[in-house]
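Worked Example 4.2. Read the sequence first, then its structure tokens.
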Amino acid sequence: AEVELPAQALNSLLLKAGMAYTEASFVSFKNGGGVGVDYDGRRLPFAPRIKTTLSAEHAMEIGSLTLRSSLGYSYADKQYSNPNNTAPNTIPRYELWNARVAIEGGSKTRWSVALWGKNLADRVYTTFNGLNALTTPRAIYGQPRTFGITATVDL
């Protein structure tokens, strides 16, 4: 189930809230862990039960230019990176904050310059956890706090 609720708070301010609930498990997964090891009833990999998003987007006209800014929050519940659903394959829940500020202009040739930041709280989180063939733990980490500038021109 998924719900998204946009609200135009002001002419220049759009608020959004979203939530997704996923109940995803194998009805039957015979021999999923090898001969005689069934994964029936276990959760699908990379399917958190709950994901939420909140965002605010603001636009302001300054002469012939537009200043756009946005702030976003996202949350992902605990999930697994393997259908065996064991502790070494657990991806803990995490939350992220992102922001963007852009100036836009042009009539025939549209352009924009944006400053953005991702994972503003600099959360350490993983997108994959597991064991290698030698049973050594391994993980893939999400991006740390990142900033950038993006410039675009639409001809």
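Now turn to a second chain, presented in exactly the same format:
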Amino acid sequence: EAFRHITGFTVQELEAQEGLTWLIHPEDRSSVQRRLQALFTGQAGSSEHRIITKSGEVRWLQDYSTPEWDPTHSRIVRIIGAGQDITPRKHAEEARLRLATIVESSDDAIISKSLDGLVTSWNAAPERLLGYQAEEMIGQPILRILPEERQEQRLPDHQPTSKRQLVIQ
């Protein structure tokens, strides 16, 4: 049932095609083929690849597989495996990468900090504007960017009311 839910195909349709390789996205077939060859040498493992569902949608799968060896005949008799739909994770990774690219290429100084005031990210713009490199600032108090004579002054108080919400006074 899970196979049908992910791919749109029934097990009977899979059996009629004599395997799964026809589901693999054309750009991923060579890497999947290499993974299959490794299985036939006795190497268990996992891989990530795309499939094309019955409706034509492209989905990402992570598969885990282990060959079962028959010592009396000195051959692999079956491959035991499982697959997991990782499409939501892959989409989140792609979105994060797009956002990171936008932030890093921005001419605006974009600095993030933790609730306790420590710098957690620092794009290239504050490096140009303030002269501090990201490596110098990550993990440092945000107040460090103020001139020494103003570091005794406080920025507006930030009181966390939860891990996801700030109240600025």
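Notes for the reader: The first helix runs from residue 2 to 7. Strands lie at 45-52, 58-70, 75-85, 111-113, 119-122, 158-162, 165-168.
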